[in-house]
């Protein structure tokens, strides 16, 4: 078998066999095929696409390129959640404790933030002492004891994906749905959870900018998960504006705590509630949607979800005092209030540009080597469809650099579009994708 022949075959629009896919993934990971030949193959895949079987085979080959996390030592049906990335997306920190408090094991290996999107691990590291690096034995033991663990991926999970993604990034071949779906799902499937819920973001702050592409990606990922023998569903949700009100690491931890106590932003809570409801149905914890929703609401009202978050922090070495008193979390030196110069309604609020403002403050990373400021970020006092008067506070900028804060103040003023009320109410969730159907809401 030669890589030359595989490139030529895909260039001519033919279907690659399972053996050919395994061959190029294995040999490229081992350094036996040069970048320039895989670049040519990726471009051929970009233009001629992969069918469902090829995409599942590519995912499987990437999963098998490294370590597979065996979760058989954890009692019960294990669940996992993945978001395709957005701004102010604190869902994992709320959903995980809610599900664990329902006695369903929630296992999550998360990543760090890059660019305008935040990372769960960075947020958790706002808590003094919180350990995101766990041994496999700790990961299993903690989950068995408290039904939840959130940690970083081991270095050798899907090394093929790491190499292929780096090459896609510099050869303009990122935006292919089979390559995107297999990249995301290989990392999920290398962790042996039984059920996976996907939150596919769509809008100006998301990777997918339009509904059709988001639905297509959701279908691809659900097909991969199902084809791999895992219960998998996807919700498609709105990322035209940030989720919740907080953007920035310690600020988002504070918002997660508020939401777990029942007084967080409505959109953040409702999305988390929907994802949790679908997860409980997926693992057959309950039979009806109303039962699942009621159970999750009771978990919040009783304080069980909040207490579960405190357990998570305690078991992973974090300072529980900071959870009980969030004012002890990292705080910025300066808070700058952005005032409205107009009266009317917030018509739009560009999530990507607001994420870039938070990045400018130091709340995110330009590169993986960047140092982040855990206290920096933005609180949105007004969101789309909210009424605003002249002089009211639109947002608060939290910064340790006053000059950067002033720059961001000017940027934010231009991002709040104020005018007449929108004729259509904004949607939080656009649809649901399962192995059997697509529901558009």
Automatic annotation (TrEMBL):
NCBIfam families: PRK05820.1 (NF004490), PRK06078.1 (NF004747), Y_phosphoryl (TIGR02644). It comes from [Clostridium] ultunense Esp. Homodimer. SMART domains: PYNP_C. PROSITE patterns: THYMID_PHOSPHORYLASE. Belongs to the thymidine/pyrimidine-nucleoside phosphorylase family. It is an enzyme of class 2 (transferase). This is Pyrimidine-nucleoside phosphorylase. PANTHER family: THYMIDINE PHOSPHORYLASE (PTHR10515). The keyword tRNA processing does not apply. Its EC number is 2.4.2.2. Gene3D superfamilies: Nucleoside phosphorylase/phosphoribosyltransferase catalytic domain, Pyrimidine nucleoside phosphorylase-like, C-terminal domain, Transferase, Pyrimidine Nucleoside Phosphorylase, Chain C. The gene is pdp. InterPro entries: Glycosyl_Trfase_fam3, Glycosyl_Trfase_fam3_N_dom, Glycosyl_Trfase_fam3_N_dom_sf, Nuc_phospho_transferase, PYNP-like_C_sf, PYNP_C, Pyrmidine_PPas_bac/euk, Pyrmidine_PPase_CS. Its cofactor is K(+). GO terms for cellular component: cytosol. GO terms for molecular function: 1,4-alpha-oligoglucan phosphorylase activity; deoxyuridine phosphorylase activity; metal ion binding; thymidine phosphorylase activity; uridine phosphorylase activity. One of its GO terms (biological process) is pyrimidine nucleoside metabolic process. The keyword Coiled coil does not apply. Residues 345-419 form the Pyrimidine nucleoside phosphorylase C-terminal domain. Keywords: Glycosyltransferase, Metal-binding, Transferase. Catalyzes phosphorolysis of the pyrimidine nucleosides uridine, thymidine and 2'-deoxyuridine with the formation of the corresponding pyrimidine base and ribose-1-phosphate. It catalyses: 2'-deoxyuridine + phosphate = 2-deoxy-alpha-D-ribose 1-phosphate + uracil; thymidine + phosphate = 2-deoxy-alpha-D-ribose 1-phosphate + thymine; uridine + phosphate = alpha-D-ribose 1-phosphate + uracil.
